Amino acid sequence: MLCSMSFLCTISDERVIERPVLLVPPADTHKYARGSAMVFSGPALHTGASRLTAQAALAVGAGLVTLVGERDALHEHAAHVTAIMLREEDAHLAIVDERVRAAAIGPGAGVSSHTRDTVMHLLKKGVPLLLDADALTSFENCPAKLFEHLHDQIVLTPHEGEFARLFPAIDLADRRTAARLAAEVSGAVVLLKGPETVVAAPDGRLAVNRHASPWLATAGSGDVLTGLVCGTLAQGHTAFEAACIACWLHGDIGVQGGPGLTADHMVGLIPLVLAECLSEGKG
Ligand SMILES: NC(=O)C1=CN([C@@H]2O[C@H](COP(=O)(O)OP(=O)(O)OC[C@H]3O[C@@H](n4cnc5c(N)ncnc54)[C@H](O)[C@@H]3O)[C@@H](O)[C@H]2O)[C@@H](O)CC1
Ligand SMILES: Nc1ncnc2c1ncn2[C@@H]1O[C@H](COP(=O)(O)OP(=O)(O)O)[C@@H](O)[C@H]1O
């Protein structure tokens, strides 16, 4: 079952990411055709970050999104979400079946061997995967073990602190060169967050997003970005395209949201941002 593309990704000759064009889903689509995504939860009392990720993935257009975690964590999620499905984590991740088009892990996951093991299991499943936050920091002392298993349909979304933990030998003074080198060394698409977000692919492609706002510097903002990338990946886009589309949409949320923006409010702005990307019904 193939997913239909949901966006046209636009990058200028100067490698600047421009507003993506949103395509209307075909009339005969269904939720699985729009793409199924799985977001891995943190433990009880650390569930907020993954919930933001799941909510953003659903709002950006994945047809269904499942939060996966321990039973206690799922009880917390159940008190907050309705449209998002909840599944208990199993040791060998049998729940990640062939219908799952993308997964994300890291926000609130905890820096631990459990997080490392889950990442390794997910990599073996071969599902397009996004690693953020604690999923990156958990490999601080063994980045080579992670890089060995990465490929160009994996997205890493570090902020500068996480970047420095995973790539201690790469100088962040020139962020574009840093992202390009990190993509080359890791074998994955690297989305380096900041006022100017840089997206680099292991084959040398590079794009920057300047459409953003300092109001985005608020707790949980990166978790929403993770959901936007994961939800876009689930809709069948390649990792590089999904990362580029998502960081423009995320930046636009900051521009539209302005003062008082919180990560909870960011999720509610996604339909508004998407509506402005709509291609007047040409699906
Ligand atoms: N609502 C929630 O439940 C939230 C949970 N969060 C989770 O909290 C955990 C810790 O995340 P943090 O990002 O705070 O912590 P980190 O564990 O990444 O550490 C933050 C440290 O990194 C350094 N750093 C360097 N450059 C930085 C940059 N550009 N941005 C931020 N820090 C930088 C700073 O020294 C800072 O003390 C993660 O699991 C994260 O997903 C956060 O995403 C915030 C919201
Ligand atoms: N000054 C800024 N201007 C524009 N965007 C910013 C700025 N500061 C942070 N951001 C964006 O906000 C998000 C913050 O993500 P992150 O650091 O992971 O925070 P959190 O872990 O709290 O979610 C990133 O997408 C980053 O690009």
TrEMBL record:
SUPFAM superfamilies: Ribokinase-like. It comes from the Bacteria. GO terms for molecular function: ADP-dependent NAD(P)H-hydrate dehydratase activity; ATP binding; NAD(P)HX epimerase activity. GO terms for biological process: metabolite repair; nicotinamide nucleotide metabolic process. Its cofactor is Mg(2+). Residues 14-277 form the YjeF C-terminal domain. AMP binds at residues 193-197, 222. It catalyses: (6S)-NADHX + ADP = AMP + phosphate + NADH + H(+); (6S)-NADPHX + ADP = AMP + phosphate + NADPH + H(+). (6S)-NADPHX binds at residues 49, 108, 159, 223. It is an enzyme of class 4 (lyase). InterPro entries: Carbohydrate_kinase_pred_CS, CARKD, Ribokinase-like. Its EC number is 4.2.1.136. It holds the Pfam family Carb_kinase. PROSITE patterns: YJEF_C_2, YJEF_C_3. Keywords: ATP-binding, Lyase, NAD, NADP, Nucleotide-binding. PANTHER family: ATP-DEPENDENT (S)-NAD(P)H-HYDRATE DEHYDRATASE, ATP-DEPENDENT (S)-NAD(P)H-HYDRATE DEHYDRATASE FAMILY MEMBER. Homotetramer. Catalyzes the dehydration of the S-form of NAD(P)HX at the expense of ADP, which is converted to AMP. Together with NAD(P)HX epimerase, which catalyzes the epimerization of the S- and R-forms, the enzyme allows the repair of both epimers of NAD(P)HX, a damaged form of NAD(P)H that is a result of enzymatic or heat-dependent hydration. Belongs to the NnrD/CARKD family. This is ADP-dependent (S)-NAD(P)H-hydrate dehydratase. The gene is nnrD.
